[in-house]
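Morning run. Coffee first, then this:
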Amino acid sequence: MGTKKIVLALDGMGGDHAPDVIVNGADIARERYPGTSFLLFGDEARLKALVDKRKGLAQVLEIVPSEDAVLAGDKPSFALRRRRKSSMWMAVEAAAQGRADTIVSAGNTGALLAISMFAMRMLEGVDRPALASFLPTSRGESIMLDLGANLECDASNLTQFAVMGSVFAQILLGLDKPRVGLLNVGSEELKGHEELRQAAALLRREGSPVSFHGFVEGNDIGAGVADVVVTDGFTGNVALKAIEGTAKLYTQFVRDAFRTSTFAKLGYLFASGAWSKLRVRVDPRRYNGGVFLGLDGVCVKSHGGTDALGFAYAIGVAVDLVRYEYKSKLVEGLARLHEITSATETPAASLQATGGTA
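And here it is:
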């Protein structure tokens, strides 16, 4: 398993700083992950000029020309219909058809989701994909999903997300039994809307494929109370943006405080080693690489504004998901979820489904 040769399809024209960041990120990743190779889709002339500047990269990378690119302002429906010759479409298609093991793109999120759902389809037992990513916590790292792919979710969606997030955490965080929590307005069992309570009841059942912690609140996210935080895409996206905004605000406050006087500047110099460690700990590039979980394939979404190091981290997420067989483990978890879901069907519901009478 550790020596598996992995081929990654890269959308060479997706992202704010493409194609430079994509090529440079691939160059960093090839040194970190020996045995990987790349299919790089995009403008052949621009890509070749960049690849040739990186010694040794051409030996593990094949440029596949594409005549079009998905733009940041493209609506998903437009990209799906009119961007069939784009670098994103062709890269996703390569992964869907088995010519690559995974696809990584820093391009338009909505377009990538729509194209991936069309080309890869969904795994059996999954109704909707969920966007998952990492967050730093006081205990290490956690996984949060959904971060915006589904604005509204029912109990079935949430339980599927719980299974997907748990398997994701097992592979990316190395946890045997990740603690899964449902994001709610309180930890009490009676709090929250009906879909949340139904999902919680199902995840608590004997034989559940996840280690269910219970409900968690917003302030529990950073505390690392749960290894996996599950919510609908509307709430998840709002929570994520709030966390990111607070982090930027805090950073600005710290910078401003150390500029107030000469003594403050001297204090910063004395504490420079500690601040360097903090910057590394909260560096957003280390947490780059959101994943559309639930697809019949591995699709990783890099932040569009990241640099080469951040894109290399996104590639690393894709490599780990393939190397440690995320898809097969998820299929097992979904099968177990289906078993306990089927067991919750009442006799009355069974009769109604078959047209019988009590």
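The CA atoms of residues 171 and 325 lie 8 Å apart. Good start to the day.
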